[in-house]
Design brief:
With about 230 residues, the chain is α/β, with parallel strands linked by helices. Helix content is about 30%, strand content about 25%. The protein has two domains: about 120 residues, HUPs (Rossmann fold, 3-Layer(aba) Sandwich), CATH 3.40.50.620; about 90 residues, putative n-type atp pyrophosphatase, domain 2 (Alpha-Beta Complex). The termini are far apart. The model has no long low-confidence stretch (mean pLDDT about 90).
C-alpha cells in the first residue's frame, strides 16, 4: 500500500517511518507542517524546516507547508497537506507517530475518513519507556530541542536522547509526573541519524533560547555527512 508519513522530524515520526518501511508499505512521501507559532497543538515548532534535510537523507520527497491557522483550526492545514499527498502520490494511507494523545489521533482519523484513506498509528498505547529503548536500540540518534515542563532546565536543550536520558526522564516522571512520551508538549526531539537515514545530519551552528521556565534548541546551520565521517554535533 502507498502511504505518506506525518513527519515532524522527531523520535516518534521517525520510528513510525521505520515501522512502515519494515512492514513493506510503499512510503511515497513525508508531510511536515510549519506552525504559525511555538504553541501549536498539533505540530512541532523548533527546527521543523530541517525536515527537508532529513527527507533528503532518507531519500523521500517531502510536502512541507506553512500553516495558515492556529489552535483547533490547524486541522485545516493538515487536511490540505494530506489532500495534496493523495493527489501527487496517490496514497492510500497515512502513518503517524501518535502514542497517547486522543486529541491528535481523533483529528487525524477524521481527516483520513474525509479523504477516504487509511490511518495507521503503530505506536498507539505502547509503553513510552519501551518505545524510547526500541528507538535507541535500533540505532536512532536524537537530541532534545525543546522543554516546557516542571523539572526540566536549560541543560536539557541539545541533550542526546540516550540510556542516561531515559533514567533521568523516569525520575522526572516520578517527581513531577512528566509525560515521558512528550505528547503533552513537555519536550520535543530532532533526529540526526538512524537506520532509515543514508547520511548523518551534522549540526554546524545552534543556539539555546531559555525563557525562564521553557526553552528551545534552535538549529541554525546543518548539513549531511557520510556515515563513515566523524559524528559532528556542536
Amino acid at each position: 500500500m502507498e502511504v505518506a508519513i506525518l513527519y515532524s522530524g522527531g523520535k516518534d515520526s521517525n520510528l513510525a517511518t521505520y515501522i512502515a518501511m519494515k512492514n513493506n508499505f510503499k512510503v511515497k512521501c513525508l508531510i511536515s507542517i510549519i506552525p504559525k507559532n511555538e504553541n501549536s497543538y498539533l505540530f512541532h515548532f523548533p527546527n521543523i524546516k530541517f525536515t527537508k534535510l532529513q527527507a533528503k537523507s532518507i531519500g523521500l520527497p517531502i510536502i512541507q507547508l506553512k500553516a495558515k491557522n492556529i489552535g483547533n483550526e490547524e486541522i485545516e492545514d493538515l487536511f490540505i497537506a494530506l489532500k495534496k499527498a493523495k493527489q501527487l502520490y496517490n496514497i492510500k494511507g497515512v502513518f503517524s507517530g501518535v502514542i497517547a494523545s486522543n486529541y491528535q489521533k481523533n483529528r487525524i482519523e477524521k481527516i483520513c475518513e474525509k479523504l477516504n484513506i487509511e490511518c495507521f498509528s503503530p505506536l498507539w498505547n505502547k509503553d513510552p519507556i519501551f518505545l524510547l529503548n526500541e528507538f535507541i536500540n535500533l540505532g536512532f540518534k536524537a537530541i532534545i530541542t525543546s522543554v516546557s515542563a516542571q523539572g526540566f532546565n536549560e541543560n536539557w536543550l541539545g541533550r542526546i536522547l540516550d540510556e542516561k536520558c531515559i533514567i533521568d526522564l523516569k525520575e522526572l516522571n516520578k517527581k513531577y509526573n512528566v509525560n515521558i512520551s512528550f505528547e503533552g508538549g513537555e519536550a520535543e526531539t530532532f533526529v540526526l541519524d538512524g537506520p532509515i537515514f543514508k547520511k548523518i545530519i551534522s549540526i554546524i551552528e545552534a543556539e539555546k533560547i531559555w525563557k525562564g521556565y521553557y526553552g528551545f534548541y534552535i538549529i541554525k546551520k546543518a548539513k549531511l555527512i557520510n556515515k563513515n565521517s566523524s559524528f559532528l554535533l556542536e
